[in-house]
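Hey team,

Sharing the TonB-dependent receptor run so nobody has to redo it. Sequence (1018 residues) first:
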Amino acid sequence: MKSKFTWIFTLLLAFFVQFAFAQQKTVSGVITDGDGMPLPGVSVLVKESPSTVVVTDLNGHYEISVAKGQTLVFTYVNTTRSVEVTDLTTYDQTMVEELKEVVITNYKTTSRPLSNDAITTVTAEKIGGRPNASFIQTLQAQVPGLNISTGSGQPGANSTVILRGYGSINGNVEPLYVIDNIPLNVDNFRSLNPNDIQSISVLKDAGATAIYGNRGANGVIVVTTKKGSFDAPLKVTYQGVTSFTEMQNNKYRTMNSRQLLGLEKAYGRGYGTQLTDEEIANYNTSTNWKDELFRTGVSQNHTISLTSGGANLASFTSIGYFDQEGILQNTGLQRFSFRNNLSGKSKNDKFTYTTALTFNYSVSNTASRLGEGAVNINPVVGANNGLPYLTPGMYQSGAQLLQWYQTGSSPDETNPIGSTGLSLTPLLLLNQLDTYIGRSNEIKALANFQGKYKITDDLSIGGSFGTDFTEINGLTVSSPASFTELLYQVDGQDYLGFQGESFSRDVSFNVNTNVSYSKSWGEHSLDVAAFTEYYKSHFKTFSYTQNGLDPKVFEPGNGAGYIPFNPATPNFYIPSVGAGKGSAGLFSYFATADYDYSQKYGVGATVRRDASYRFAATNRWGTFWSVSGRWNIDQEDFMEDAGFDLLKVRASYGTVGNQNIIGQSIYSAANNSRTLYGLISPSYANMPGYGLAQLGNADLKWETTKQFNLGVEWEVFEQRLRGTVELYDKTVDDLFLTLPLSGVNGTYGIPGNYGSMQNRGVELQLAYDVLRNDDFKLTLNFNGSYNKNKVLDIANESGRVEGDLQILAEGHPLNEFYSIPYAGVNPANGNLLFYDAEGNLTENPNPETDKRFTGKTFFPKFQGGFGFDASYKGFFLTTQFSYVADIWRYDYDLSSLQDPTDIGVMNQSADLLNAWTTDNRVTDIPALRYTNQGTDEFSDRYLKDASYVRLRYASLGYQFKKDLLDKTFLSGARVYLQAENLFTLTKWRGWDAESNRAADVYQYPTPRILSVGLEVEF
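Structure output:
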């Protein structure tokens, strides 16, 4: 009986087990984002059985065992979707995630919680709509560790971008830029419309950059442009901004006419010596030359975009027009832009593709030779140093100015022209603005196709092809009627002036093929991919300068006024012609692997082999690699009640290379043209000759950067408080340096790998939602970084390479200022005082023995930004401050304004009114006729603190609510006011504390910008 019961029970149990298994089935699907692109890292679990969970792979694919009637829950960062299981076996989902939670590295896309790497993402709302010609300028103070300094107010001017400290001495120091999978040759972005950008990812550590191999040593900036969405109706968006730009104020306190005339009279030189004290007191003419040479610029920026999508094709198209007047007369930038991005997929979703095409045309008008002290060429000299008692009405023509310059005075003795023609400076510069043309026309086109085909649910193949085309035509004209041309006219030269034209074309191609395998089983996920990449770039340039123009028929831009060659005067009108070309090539193969367990633990690895054209065969190949890992502590069971929404620790270590040697161009090489000799200039006895240009070095090889990174990310209080802290240690070995050689070798140096350098630092990023409800939102944000740079090794006996005021020395920061310490003014006689090598005071220091390490550089140690975002019932206010601390630069503009030898020739700072006298012995300004002039040339007298805090950006506006637009044809609208560089707190006295130079000499000032904007959607 017992055995019979056991047999019946076993039969029933088997029946129910079989029934239960019959109810279980395997379902699958693909999770995509709003653009239809696969979304990896999405958690898929069975609601009734939370332990049954899988994660989507790199193709967005998942498989999971579930019973009919149960519920699948899809979770991605802050987005959750659920669906009840029916008889279907495929369940696809579209999840529109917040872009700030998506990490894009070009070769792969993942979510922030599942990323092992140090990456900062900036989204479209922080980039678009701002009155900047280049998107690079909008990144300042938004990314910890990223230093951006422009140092010029020229519209569209290039910026210097440094990530985590300088990574080279003579090689490239800027990040690699990748736009829609296309690596760019140069960092000139004036032709690209920032309103087209969806997001920017800044890749910092080796875990993220090693996949770029030889080009990733200084970080990578990945730009993703906007795309359309599938199954979306047509949406038209217009964005318009009108801006007013004006010069920022400086603190030089230049003198007015009465002050300067009084000083000239006391000094005994200049127009003031011709006037009585009463005439000076009643002198009312005081010209502000800044107002005459500069202006308030008016700018406009308009973009119209169209987005739409069907079941299998989505499109984004934009047309833009940008016109910015520079604050300096006759300067500006115009840009026309067009973009079309397509996203497509096959009906069975096995094949997906994207195309990105942009065409841009820009015209840039520039001033001549900014950054020089030429009184007849650089307009900034006149704005800074022009005599205030001169007036613009005195200027009539270049011929008139030449006469005054040569005679030392004007025909009208009442005009205040001194005994030297240099006092004419502001008038000479008015003539320069009238007679000089500097223009650059640029065509910029980027095109890319990227496709992927799923062979199976786990295996895919893909590839991309991209091209970057840049063509620039330059025009430089100096009129025959200009003062400068008249000044340098020689006997027998009947025609003056010149016209120079230049042409350059840069075309690059990038081809990538890949195969990827993604597999998820249970709580495990594995993604493996292998790639090959081929990069080729071609450069060609041509230039032509015609000396001598016939003013009767000359028209800028054509050759009607060119003077034909005449054997009788061969040296006057012979044109100068130049041409060049270059090619750059790179072949690479690489692989990546990422493993994840239960979204708790993740490891990744990358290895890449690069072959570069720059090096000899023995050093052509370089191998770069990285390993990385993370621990999502918040996913542990013991953290269930800890209050953390995210707590992640990650680390990475790897090597990355730098092939851009001896300069920053993609074409820079030990010898670009592969010739060992160059034409000697000047020639010998009017005969052409050849001399050694450089010595070859077959041992030259890559710079290699080794970087360790440790990061912690957290979110608490329902994600109200969010933060990231990074620690990094980055060492560069085999630095590109040129060591000096004796002149008997026919050259003065040989390039090679001679040193190493280290950057260590910490980065912090914080955001806190103070208020977060339907009506009122307030978020505070802060980011900061500290970087310590040190030169570790220089391969020469002294361990140092010394310059005039900077030094490269082991154990010290890169290009540390190396100068004689300035001690002040001698109260006994008004001379300058210095400290010698023993610390004793001296009026006559020795530049060879008394220089010291200062511990100061023009690379900031501290930098970052802070601000807030607030909104209340449609109103919004955003602020963004930037700060830089412990940065030093030489202020040579101030030096020129405190130079008493220029009294009677140039304007002076009112500081000289406090000069030493027998009645004013305690002062920081020496006597007007101090006897040790010139001794401060190698001192730190004008080495000034350039630290600052700046209100970089502020925006105040109103977002119209949808119910207010219901009866209109608009689906969205907002209006806003903006300000850039509104005010700056700094000890720096010049036009702008932000600069990418160690010294400032009459540079184009960066402007303050006030804007009004409108954005509407149809």
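Residues 265 and 273 are 4 Å apart (CA to CA).

Ping me if you want the raw files.
A.
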